[in-house]
Specification:
By secondary structure, the protein is an alpha+beta fold. It is built from three helices and seven strands. It has a domain of 87 residues: Double Stranded RNA Binding Domain, CATH 3.30.160. It is 30% helix and 35% strand. Strands 1, 2, 3, 4, 5, 6 and 7 form a seven-stranded antiparallel β-sheet that branches. The longest helix is centred in the middle third of the chain and has 21 residues.
Length: 126
């Protein structure tokens, strides 16, 4: 399921793994890292600090919330609202086409036109 044009999540009982696309950009004096497919973001005074916050705070909270939610149907429903598709055979596997709308990000974060937006891959393992 791991391909360059798809993001994926595997929701295990006690473990969540995946690979998603993220964008980084500068907003004022802060560096932002944003995962559009999960609507998660973090910030810092550098890209490294923002990435550290994403990995060690935001994604850990995301994983904890999913792992401890007794209503897995609700979790899947919320992910579907974000465009995730459940695998027909492996019910805890989800995928999503890896498309990032850079113009939409500029608008959503009210960034000036011409703001540099860089894409990167983020692995999830928690």
């Amino acid at each position: 399921m791991e391909t360059k044009d798809k993001e994926y999540l595997k929701l295990g009982s006690h473990k969540i793994t995946g690979n998603v696309r993220a964008v980084t950009f500068k907003d004022g004096e802060y560096d932002i890292i944003y995962i559009p497919s999960l609507n998660l973001s973090a910030y810092g005074s550098s890209v490294e600090e923002a990435t550290d916050m994403l990995q060690n705070v935001v994604l850990k909270d995301f994983c904890f919330s999913i792992a401890n939610n007794k209503n897995k149907g609700l979790v899947i429903m919320e992910l579907k609202k974000l465009g995730w598709i459940r695998d027909l055979f492996f019910e805890k596997d989800l995928s999503k086409k890896a498309y990032i709308d850079k113009e939409g990000i500029l608008s959503e974060f009210e960034l000036p036109e011409g703001t540099e937006i860089r894409e990167e891959s983020v692995k999830i393992a928690c």
